[in-house]
Amino acid sequence: MSADAIADLTSAVRDRIEAAVGANSVHIGPPVGADLTAGESVTLFLFHVEPNRELRNVDHYVDPPGGGPDDLLAVSEGLPLDLRYVISVFRRPTNAADPVELQVLGKLVQALAARPTYTDPVLPGQTVRLTPEPYPMEEMSRVWGLFPTTPYQSSIVYLASPVVITFATPTPAAPVTQRSLRGGVLTGTGSVFGDRSLPEVGP
Q1: Has this prediction a pTM greater than 0.70?
Q2: Which of 2, 78, 91, 201 is deepest in the core (most CB within 10 A)?
Q3: Sign, CA torsion 153/156/157/161
Q4: What is the pLDDT of residue 65?
Q5: Please, what are the domains in the chain?
Q6: Which three-class secondary structure state does DSSP give residue 9?
């Protein structure tokens, strides 16, 4: 894992949407209709990134390099993040009579709900869940206020969590290859086990 986790997840979400609504239909970026090509009708915009408050002080374990059933998990230093995407659907073509954008919205919501998790090989060592998040209209208006020349489009907000950005390649712990047991030593005055002595037992 590396700093590519955010970009890799975003690309994976785009691919999952396009598998449901059509190839080359998703534009990664702000919901600005003027930026869309002729075939694009959906915008996937990462508008909010923040540390995950519950996990930022918790060790993150990953499979060590090389893998293998006998290897131990390794601790990987990293920062777990919460990502929020706003997915917006534009009517294409703009003069379409039917509300085609609502049909597209339904298909993409269905596809993302059917497979909400992302793990290997997209995000090795991670399991990220993408879930729709209730978002107050007031907060949504603030997002759209960043684009005053674009009319509001049908949109939904998704939370992806946790996405871990690692700081270094984890070093695996050495697997246990040998175990040794040290028993007690019998003496003439009693039995000694470690630091404890047992008194002699009479006949």
Answers
A1: yes
A2: 78
A3: negative
A4: 54
A5: 5-175 (3.30.2000)
A6: helix
